[in-house]
Amino acid sequence: MSVIQVHDKKFQPYIGATELQQRIREMAAEMSRDLKDERPLFIAILNGSFMFAGDLFKYLNIPAEISFIKLASYKGTKSTGNVVQAIGLDEDLFGRTVVIVEDIVDTGKTLSQFLPQLEHQQPKKLLVASLLTKPEAMVHPIKIDYLGFSVPNKFLLGYGLDYDGLGRNLPEIYQLVE
Ligand code: HPA
Ligand code: MG
Q: Which domain of life is it from (predicted)?
């Protein structure tokens, strides 16, 4: 692995493919133990989480379901502020053990708006799994139940994360060279 160029910026290797897969296997093993009798429903948030969600789900060895959604953010009224809407969420969450799957939690803004909407449906448990988080960027604290890596507040690329549309297909994670 060496420095790569995407659009106008340079990125250096940060987390290798083997280390990523190893950590995701550990996360899947922990979740398989914790949730073995729960038949959890994984809800993966597109686009960024597609690769993490696929690998995590592949490494689970318990009965589990998965559904992929997109979150659309739009300006609500003055009283509601910004609103996030889930596109493609057809499942009834009542009484279910639900695991939200994210590639990265940085400011926490999206989940701070989205999780309360899901709580309305009265799931039995509502858990969050995120491959990455940037604690220095967190504005709306989110409890992450299953975390891959805690990273500095620098722009990352690869393994689902894009820079202006490109880089999602990289099997490892790169960091912006500043
Ligand atoms: N890279 C790409 N997409 C992102 C990031 C990042 O570091 N943080 C939130 N979305
Ligand atoms: Mg992006």
A: Bacteria
